[in-house]
């Protein structure tokens, strides 16, 4: 079977690109819920319902393993899905844990008690829903102690990126970084907690300065999935051709994705 990749819109394509590069032998099916994007301003119950619907659609395509390439969905819905909804023969994984494992220098699947880590001051940039969920802080507390996290909700940034307004997006990045630095003047590390944000990584780095280590998700998630599939080869099936699905208008989403990734992508109706 293929591996499903779900996102609220186009941001998960940054993760999918890294997955295609790192795991060329794996067939992927991508589903963007473009009809309901953005998730970052929605209520948790709404996010849960939309995410479950998207995952069920990917299961219908034979994707017994689904990656939530959306931090908002991972933060607001994943734990509830895993505890109350996902059947035993399916797997749904998020993008937060691989990022935190990289930040805390833990190996995949290290379930030892939390310990002191080198990084003590972390800036988190994410959607308002991800920030309000405090999921990043909760998952970090399972793995590290003594880490101060300052979270900045980056309102408007996903919309600007999806609309291709990079001038506005760069201005928003500078504004959000400045707002965070007023509360945490000297972060040691910055986490880009939305899969749209890798497209603005240079702007974040410029605003944060060279002393701040920036953690972005695509390559980290690809490495983590490679480890997972090595341990769970039964979740991997045959095939090479990726499929792109959307709940929105396939032609419009395809044009937006082409602008987003600077290469042509053809979407089909989900």
Q: In total, how many domains does the architecture comprise? A: 2
Please state the structural category: alpha/beta
* CATH class descriptor name of the largest domain: Alpha Beta
Mean pLDDT: 92
Distance between the termini: 18 Å
Q: From the coordinates shown, what is the CATH architecture of the largest domain?
A: 3-Layer(aba) Sandwich
How many whole angstroms does the radius of gyration measure? 18 Å
What order do the strands of the largest sheet run in, or round the barrel if closed? Answer: 4-3-1-2-11-12
How large is the count of helical segments?
11
Helix-strand sequence: EHEHEHEHEEHHEEHHEHEHEHE
The total count of strands amounts to 12
The share of residues in extended strands comes to 15-25%
CATH topology-level name of the largest domain:
Rossmann fold
- Fraction of residues in helix: 40-55%
Largest sheet: 6 strands, parallel
**Given the C-alpha coordinates, what overall shape results?**
globular
Low-confidence runs: none
Structure description:
With 270 residues, the chain is an alpha/beta fold. The protein has 2 domains: 3-94 and 218-269, Rossmann fold (3-Layer(aba) Sandwich), CATH 3.40.50; 98-216, Rossmann fold, CATH 3.40.50.1860. It contains 11 helices and 12 strands. The chain has helices at residues 12-22, 44-60, 71-84, 96-103, 128-133, 135-141, 157-162, 166-183, 201-208, 217-231, 250-261; strands at residues 3-7, 28-32, 65-68, 91-93, 115-116, 121-126, 144-145, 148-153, 189-192, 213-215, 243-246, 268-269. The protein has a 6-stranded parallel sheet, sandwiched between helices. Strand 11, helix 11 and strand 12 form a beta-alpha-beta unit. Helix 8 (166-183) runs parallel beside helix 9 (201-208). The longest helix is centred in the middle third of the chain and has 18 residues, at 166-183. It is globular. The relative contact order is 0.19.
């Amino acid at each position: 079977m293929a591996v499903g990749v779900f996102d609220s819109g186009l941001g998960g394509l940054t993760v999918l690109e890294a997955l295609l590069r790192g795991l060329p032998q794996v067939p992927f099916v991508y589903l963007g819920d473009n009809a309901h994007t953005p998730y970052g301003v929605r209520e948790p119950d709404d996010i849960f319902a939309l995410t479950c619907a998207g995952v069920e659609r990917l299961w219908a395509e034979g994707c017994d393993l689904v990656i939530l390439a959306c931090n908002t969905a991972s933060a607001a819905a994943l734990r509830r899905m895993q505890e109350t909804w996902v059947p035993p023969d399916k797997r749904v994984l998020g993008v937060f844990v691989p990022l935190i494992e990289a930040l805390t220098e833990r190996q995949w699947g290290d379930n030892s008690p939390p310990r002191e880590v080198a990084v003590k001051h972390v800036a988190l940039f994410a959607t308002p829903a991800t920030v309000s969920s405090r999921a990043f802080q909760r998952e970090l507390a399972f793995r590290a102690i003594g880490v101060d996290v300052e979270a900045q909700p980056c309102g408007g940034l996903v919309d600007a990126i999806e609309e291709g307004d990079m001038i506005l997006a760069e201005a928003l990045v500078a504004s959000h970084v400045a707002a965070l630095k007023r509360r945490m003047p000297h972060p040691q590390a910055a986490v880009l907690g939305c899969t749209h944000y890798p497209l603005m990584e240079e702007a974040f780095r410029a605003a944060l300065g060279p002393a701040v280590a920036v953690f972005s998700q695509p390559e980290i998630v690809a490495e983590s999935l490679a480890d997972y599939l090595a341990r769970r080869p039964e979740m991997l099936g045959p095939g090479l051709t990726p499929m792109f699905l959307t709940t929105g208008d396939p032609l419009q989403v395809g044009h937006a994705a082409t602008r987003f990734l600077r290469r042509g992508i053809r979407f089909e109706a989900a």
